[in-house]
Description:
- By secondary structure, this protein is an all-beta fold.
- The protein has a single domain (11-369), classed as TolB, C-terminal domain (Neuraminidase), CATH 2.120.10.
- Helix content is 1%, strand content 45%.
- It contains one helix and 27 strands.
- The chain has a five-stranded mixed β-sheet, with no helix packed on it. Strands 3-4-5-6 form a four-stranded antiparallel β-sheet, with no helix packed on it.
- Strand 12 and strand 13 form a beta hairpin.
- The chain is globular.
Amino acid sequence: xxxxxxxxxxxxxxxxxxxxxxxxxxxxxxxxxxxxxxxxxxxxxxxxxxxxxxxxxxxxxxxxxxxxxxxxxxxxxxxxxxxxxxxxxxxxxxxxxxxxxxxxxxxxxxxxxxxxxxxxxxxxxxxxxxxxxxxxxxxxxxxxxxxxxxxxxxxxxxxxxxxxxxxxxxxxxxxxxxxxxxxxxxxxxxxxxxxxxxxxxxxxxxxxxxxxxxxxxxxxxxxxxxxxxxxxxxxxxxxxxxxxxxxxxxxxxxxxxxxxxxxxxxxxxxxxxxxxxxxxxxxxxxxxxxxxxxxxxxxxxxxxxxxxxxxxxxxxxxxxxxxxxxxxxxxxxxxxxxxxxxxxxxxxxxxxxxxxxxxxxxxxxxxxxxx
Length: 371
C-alpha cells in the first residue's frame, strides 16, 4: 500500500503457545487472543533479492507438500507486486523463506518487454499440498489504476514452473486475494476480484502425478465496493477466510471498510451478494486487506490505511471474533500503510503468524508467549 518508490518487506511473527495456552486455543474459544505485541526479532533476513519489492501475498507451505522440489512444509512464500522499476503492478517474483530465515527465489517470470511491464503478483497466493503454488497477477504498465488490467491466475509446480494460466474477464477480473479448501485430489480456490467487486469459486481436480484441472468456476458473491487508489492502485474485496467446518466464507471488503460472511460458500450455485455484515468498526478497521481464520476461531486482518485513515492508529493488524467483537490489535510499524498480507498456522502446539511490513527490508521473526 506504499507509493511506487517505497521498498516493501516481509515479517514473520511466531507466537509460542504451549501447555495450558495450547489447550486454550481450542476452536471457538473467544477469550484468548492470538496477536502478540511485537518484541525483539530473533531472525532478520532480506527478502528483496530479485529487485522486486512490495510483497503482498503470504502463505505457508502445508504438511504433505512434496519435498523433491524447491519448497518444504512450513516454508513461507511471498509474492511481489512491484518490479525493479518501482511501479506497482509490475512485480514478477515469489520468494521462499525457511523457518531458519533463509531466503531464495522460488519463481521468477522471464524479463518483460518493455522493462516497465510485469505481472503484478498480488495477495492472491496459496499452496496446494499436491505440490502447486497458485498466485494472482493484476498488471499495470505505469503503476496506476489507469493502466490496470483484469489479470490472471498462475498455477506453478514445486519446481517453479508455470503449468497453467487461468483467465476470464468476468470471473477473474483482478484476482486480488484467495483462500483454498484443499482435499488432496481435489480443491476449491476462492478468489476475490478487486476490479469487479466479486468472489469466484474455482473447483479443481488434481490427478495423481498430473497438473490441476478446472472442473467449474462459479461467482458466489458480488456487490463489494471498488475504487481507484493512488496508494494501492485499486481497492475492493481482498482477504478471504474459509470456515472449513461450516463452509462459510468471510470477505474483507477494503473499500466498504467491513467484513462480510457468505454462507454455504463451498456448495452454493448462486450469487449470494455481499452476504451478511459481520464486523463494521470505524475505530479499529482502516481499510481491511488480507484475512485469516486463526486456530482459536478468531479472524485476523490487516489495516492498509487507504480507507478510513486514522493518523494516530496506522499499520495495525486486528483480531476479532466471528461475531464481530474486537479482541486485540498491534502496530507492525509506525509508518502508514505498512500492513498488507498475512497467514496463520498451528504447528505442534505453536501458532505461527506471518505478515508483511511495508516499511522495512527484512524478514523478521518473533517468539512471544501470548499469555
